Amino acid sequence: xxxxxxxxxxxxxxxxxxxxxxxxxxxxxxxxxxxxxxxxxxxxxxxxxxxxxxxxxxxxxxxxxxxxxxxxxxxxxxxxxxxxxxxxxxxxxxxxxxxxxxxxxxxxxxxxxxxxxxxxxxxxxxxxxxxxxxxxxxxxxxxxxxxxxxxxxxxxxxxxxxxxxxxxxxxxxxxxxxxxxxxxxxxxxx
Length: 190
Prior knowledge:
The longest helix is centred in the first third of the chain and has 18 residues, at 40-57. The protein is globular. A six-stranded mixed sheet has the order 4-7-9-10-11-12, sandwiched between helices. It has a three-stranded antiparallel sheet with strand order 1-3-2, with no helix packed on it. A three-stranded mixed sheet has the order 6-5-8, with no helix packed on it. The chain has helices spanning 11-15, 40-57, 87-92, 117-134, 183-187; strands at 3-7, 25-28, 31-34, 62-63, 68-70, 77-78, 82-84, 98-99, 108-112, 138-143, 148-155, 158-165, 170-173, 177-182. The chain is α+β, with helices and mostly antiparallel strands. It contains five helices and 14 strands. It starts with a strand and ends with a helix.
């Protein structure tokens, strides 16, 4: 990750920053850290999930990697690989594709694990804690290295493992229902 010299005293100050690019940055201890591009395989998986969610949710409520979530802790923001937002978010996100702490949480957040121990820890531990704190009802960790989908559901404020999907297991959301997809379909492209 590339770190820039710009320092920010608040999240609001960060939100007003524009470097004239479409680069994504995480705000970590007041400093910008460039978010590296996703791997092509992870993008393919996200696209397949987008297509599966499209008939259920429609195009306005599914957001790709560019959606930003303000979170507590460090970094102060995350860019999930795929997010299903609530109907009221559509208008709230019209000016800036950022869900603030003051807004309702999204319905579903999906992260696709990139190779490497740091990335695994980030998705399985750090992001899990931050999304749980946001009260996101459902969080999926799609792991191409393990060819599995861990589905976490919020119960009494804590994520519980609702399912680990592999091979021919039907992909089903607790919030949205059946996606007409089996787990193996996501990983067969690799």
